[in-house]
Amino acid sequence: MRQQANATGVQNEVLRFQKSLQQYIMSGRKLPFDMSQVQRVQQLVVAGRNAEAKALLQQLQSAMR
Predict the structure, then answer these.
(1) What DSSP line would sit under 7-64, residue for residue?
(2) Which of 10, 11, 20, 56 is least buried, going by the fewest C-beta atoms within 10 A?
(3) For position 13, what pLDDT does the model report?
(4) Range of 11's domain?
């Protein structure tokens, strides 16, 4: 149950990130990273490697600030 809750939490974070990413792009600013990194986060979540996905997601979020 704990792993499932963690996975759901990471998936929710990814969804929030995607929404903020869309807003960032719509504002006309250039992304400070490559979209392949966003795809990598999604691949990690699908593979169940939530800790790695969360770490990469946090790096991307801090780059957008």
Answers:
(1) HHHHHHHHHHHHHHHHHHHHTTPPPSS-HHHHHHHHHHHHTT-HHHHHHHHHHHHHHH
(2) 20
(3) 92
(4) 2-64
**How does pLDDT run across 3-26, given as a tens digit for each residue?**
666 677 888 999 999 999 999 999
Give the number of other CB atoms < 10 A from CB of residue 6.
Answer: 14
Give the separation between CA 25 and CA 6, rounded to whole angstroms: 28
Radius of gyration of the chain (CA): 12
* Calpha distance 54→17 (Å, rounded): 11
Joined together, the tokens standing for residue 41 give 């986060």
Q: To which H or E segment does residue 3 belong?
A: helix 2-26
